[in-house]
């Protein structure tokens, strides 16, 4: 994510690239503006290279990752209004280690750091922000009321395929808590999705990304 101060520079790079010969490599370009912040192509590529956004199997992973980064930017802006506590440094260390573990070895990790121009401090800051966001989301959505037994039973009946093994639906008593946990998580995801959609409606989000012609 780039600060507002880089907006003109990134836009200039984008325009320069657009006016260059067709064979010229596009160095960077602005893909979206979220309030006073911008998201560039390099931001998206960095997130994808380090696995900082959930994997996506769509035909356009850049578009999918961009939407994730837009949502993250909106949520982080909201989080900063409430100033959640700083995460334990050990938790940040563990988060950075988890990112490192996605690479074959330290040399491969360092190569991607160099390729994306991301510093160790920037990676730590990303992990730190993620942990603060998780705390905020847990406080806001982690205490939703448990579904009633009737709601769990309804979910079980309407989604029997989830509880079918070898062609037979498992008895409700055997899967009651599994069904309850799944329903609770889906309810939480629905509330979170509705909240983020509300943030989008109240914010100035401009998406400039156009998928490449196929």
The number of distinct β-strands equals: 5
The CATH homology group name: Porin chaperone SurA, peptide-binding domain
* Category from helices, strands and their pairing: mainly alpha
Termini separation comes to 28 Å
SSE topology:
Elements: H1 7-19, E1 30-34, E2 37-40, H2 41-50, H3 61-80, H4 89-100, H5 106-116, H6 120-141, H7 149-158, E3 164-165, E4 168-169, H8 172-202, E5 205-207
Antiparallel strand pairs: 1-2, 1-5, 3-4
Structural key phrases:
214 residues; mainly alpha; Triger factor/SurA peptide-binding fold; three-stranded antiparallel β-sheet; two-stranded antiparallel ribbon; 8 helices; globular; disordered N terminus
Q: Would you give an account of this structure?
A:
The chain is mainly alpha-helical. The chain has a single domain (30-207), classed as Triger factor/SurA peptide-binding fold, CATH 1.10.4030.10. Helices cover 60% and strands 7% of the residues. It is built from eight helices and five strands, in the order H-E-E-H-H-H-H-H-H-E-E-H-E. The protein has helices at 7-19, 41-50, 61-80, 89-100, 106-116, 120-141, 149-158, 172-202, and strands spanning 30-34, 37-40, 164-165, 168-169, 205-207. It has a three-stranded antiparallel sheet. Strand 3 (164-165) and strand 4 form a beta hairpin. It starts with 6 loop residues before the first helix and ends in a 7-residue tail after the last strand.
Gist of the model:
Helices cover 60% and strands 7% of the residues. By secondary structure, it is mainly α.
């Amino acid at each position: 994510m780039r600060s507002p101060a880089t907006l003109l520079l990134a836009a200039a790079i984008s325009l320069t690239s657009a006016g260059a010969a067709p064979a010229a490599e596009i160095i960077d370009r602005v893909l979206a503006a979220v309030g006073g912040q911008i998201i560039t192509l390099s931001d998206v590529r960095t997130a994808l290279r380090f696995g900082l956004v959930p994997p996506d199997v769509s035909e356009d992973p850049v578009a999918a990752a961009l939407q994730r980064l837009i949502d993250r930017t909106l949520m982080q802006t909201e989080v900063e209004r409430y100033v959640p506590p700083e995460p334990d440094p050990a938790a940040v260390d563990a988060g950075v280690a988890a990112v490192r573990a996605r690479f074959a070895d330290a040399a491969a990790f360092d190569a991607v750091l160099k390729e994306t121009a991301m510093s160790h401090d920037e990676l730590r800051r990303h992990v730190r922000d993620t942990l603060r966001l998780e705390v905020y989301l847990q406080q806001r959505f982690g205490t939703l009321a448990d579904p009633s037994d009737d709601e769990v039973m309804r979910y079980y009946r309407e989604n029997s395929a989830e509880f079918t093994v070898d062609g037979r639906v498992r008895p409700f008593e055997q899967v009651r808590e599994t069904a309850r946990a799944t329903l609770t998580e889906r309810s939480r995801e629905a509330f979170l999705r509705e909240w983020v959609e509300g943030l989008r409606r109240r914010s100035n989000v401009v998406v400039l990304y156009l998928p490449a012609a196929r």
